[in-house]
Amino acid sequence: MAKFNSSKIFILLILSVVALITPIHSSDVERKVYIVYIGNLVETDESPSSYHFNMLQEVVDSRFLTKSLVRSYKRSFNGFAAYLTDQEQEKLAGHEKVVSIFPSTTFYPQTTRSWDFLGLAENVHRNPTAESDTIIGVIDTGIWPESESFNDEGLALLPRNGKDKLIGARYYNSQSPTVDSARDKDGHGSHTTSIAAGNYVKDASFYGIAQGIARGGVPSARIAAYKACNGDGCQTTDLLAAFDDAIADGVDIITISVGGDYPSQLENDVIAIGSLHAFQKGILVTQSAGNRGTVSSVMPWIFTVAASSTDRGIVTKVALGNGTLFTGKTVNSFSSTGTSVPVVYGKDVSSRCNELSALSCHPGCLDTDLVKGKIVLCSLFGGVKEAFRAGALGSVSSQRLFFQSPAVADESSVVPLAASALNPNDFQVVQSYFNSTKSPKLDILKSESVRNLDAPLVASFSSRGPNRILTDILKPDITAPGIEILAAFSPMAAYVKSFHPNWSPSAIKSALMTTAWKMDPTKDSLAEFSYGAGHIDPVKAVDPGLVYETFTDDYIKMFCGLGYDSAKLSKIFGVNITCSAGQHGRSKDLNYPSMTSYINTSVTFSEYFTRTVTNVGLANSTYKVTTSTSPDYNITVTPNILTFGATNEKKSFDVIISGKINNGKMVSSLLEWSDGVRKVRSPIVVYPNNL
Ligand SMILES: *[C@@H]1O[C@H](CO)[C@@H](O)[C@H](O)[C@H]1NC(C)=O
Ligand SMILES: *[C@@H]1O[C@H](CO)[C@@H](O)[C@H](O)[C@H]1NC(C)=O
Ligand SMILES: *[C@@H]1O[C@H](CO)[C@@H](O)[C@H](O)[C@H]1NC(C)=O
Ligand SMILES: *[C@@H]1O[C@H](CO)[C@@H](O)[C@H](O)[C@H]1NC(C)=O
Ligand SMILES: *[C@@H]1O[C@H](CO)[C@@H](O)[C@H](O)[C@H]1NC(C)=O
Ligand SMILES: *[C@@H]1O[C@H](CO)[C@@H](O)[C@H](O)[C@H]1NC(C)=O
């Protein structure tokens, strides 16, 4: 398993700067940036860059040759990005070495809406706790570490004393020359990063998960940040560069909450390509399902995480001195402020701004000496960030957002100081209480969970299946708590990995999927297409009993079965592959922890799956199967008892589900292996082509 040593960390400290390249036009032809994917790294006598340059030389007009190359991918896989005319692109597409060539496009960071990460940019605590060796590479909008050593030039990084969470940062600016550091100007990456660092999960005692992590003695993972996105989105050339670096830097897990609008074939999807090469190096890649429409994270080696809306159950109460209690939104991990903290109005503590701006605590308006250690009332939620900047101890605001009024958010946002966001009517009452009371008092309480979390729902914004590219691979794979999507998820995968450092990415993924909490299909008509295997439970995932593993060879077999060309697969995987004739299969034969079959609309069906499980529990153990039941289908599992005599022993079984499609609806069913203690559950989904 890849581990950082000091020289690797040192390499990470060197920011990679992509040459500033402006669009190039010759007199009459326009050049666009294309990504040329060549496949796995291969041994050659020439350096990759000159190899790429030579390929370009064969097709590009010599007058533009030196300006054509945008970036070489050469650390973890093979390819480059270049400015090409349509004609040059066509010529290069026919080159024997090229797997695929496709235009660079823009992907977007995925979260619910802007305020979900508002105020978080500075929320990277520096708890001097023992650290895990697991390194999470976060590909996103960058970081904003709270550290004097990180200056505005963005060149400095944190000290290498072995205790820091953030151990390195790189940035990419192939098409945004104004980006000149890994500093996060947008907040998304800092949100993702600060939560991935584990602080949030720990501090908020998130659903009891934090206790599990503490018990396991793995407080958190370390972070390497890869800034491939900015306010304009993420250029796919830069995303691919970030993968190229993160894999070579030796991270253990890559997390990316970025995606395109539509699913693509492997060879035209930079995240699919980058994550495949990561998988081959033993690195698990987690990706958010997406922000809208059909899920675009479709490849089986990626762990695709949907967002559940459980965070709606987290509230922060505000108590007035006269006994009135209000319930506001925010995820506030700070303990009660008590009622002795002075409360001030934004407008009374600003010497710089007009009344309206001051009331809303507009950026830059508050005077530090007037708000330090106090609670500030702000008429807009965005003011929370300004209150924090100015050194306030707390903030009570209206839920209304900057720029989006009268929008009222319905999801709780993590805050960097004691803060609650009240609905606008309640905020009015707080104001009038202050206006009419001689010595007003106010207490901001720590967040609490107000809802039974047994049946979380998938957030409306989270993308749904089915998988339009690999129709028999269920996507998304799993659901994790709301706003923090992947971010909360990463430390959980790191948590599982810390117990089992030698587990393959597919074993970790299987463990998290088969131990997930079951979700309620009656509350979501798209059932598994919304939530995958269910809601993540990392504590259970440490001891899954059995795992479904897949290795590179299984993926090769799958692509052969899907009709891929042997020569192309050989380039992608970097090994000689000969798909045998007649090897026609579907992705449903992959040894995946869920079972899915896409069928032509027919009233009756009979679908067959075969799977192999590996015993990672007690050496001597016996698992019995149970299946869900319904008038619409029958499930037969053969054998229905698996007896193991050793750890790592493998056993195979067959599943037949037969039945009828009811009113064109998907069949949502499951099977579960249990040894009496551990439960290893897989969803079985059959869906007709009208879905
Ligand atoms: C309370 O007083 C502030 C400032 O004097 C004023 O802007 C606000 O409208 C008043 N609010 C209420 C509800 O009385
Ligand atoms: C507290 O004060 C507010 C504002 O004046 C008022 O609306 C509310 O009814 C008061 N609560 C109690 C319990 O008196
Ligand atoms: C693949 O096959 C080619 C020729 O068929 C051979 O030269 C090469 O060494 C083989 N590569 C591997 C990794 O076996
Ligand atoms: C469904 O039927 C169409 C036309 O008969 C066929 O081309 C297609 O391969 C079938 N799809 C599946 C999943 O069997
Ligand atoms: C498993 O069972 C076999 C035979 O029943 C026994 O010889 C062996 O010691 C057991 N192994 C463990 C780890 O308990
Ligand atoms: C399930 O199996 C039973 C017993 O063989 C049979 O009567 C029933 O029709 C089957 N149901 C479906 C939906 O195929």
UniProtKB/TrEMBL annotation:
The keyword Endoplasmic reticulum does not apply. Residues 132-482 form the Peptidase S8/S53 domain. It comes from the Eukaryota. Residues 589-686 form the Subtilisin-like protease fibronectin type-III domain. The keyword Chloroplast does not apply. InterPro entries: Peptidase_S8/S53_dom, Peptidase_S8/S53_dom_sf, S8pro/Inhibitor_I9, S8pro/Inhibitor_I9_sf, SBT, Subtilisin-like_FN3. Pfam families: fn3_6, Inhibitor_I9, Peptidase_S8. Residues 1-26 form the signal peptide. Residues 33-107 form the Inhibitor I9 domain. Keywords: Signal. PANTHER family: PROPROTEIN CONVERTASE SUBTILISIN/KEXIN (PTHR10795). Belongs to the peptidase S8 family. This is Uncharacterized protein. It comes from Rehmannia glutinosa (Chinese foxglove). The lineage of its organism: Eukaryota, Viridiplantae, Streptophyta, Embryophyta, Tracheophyta.
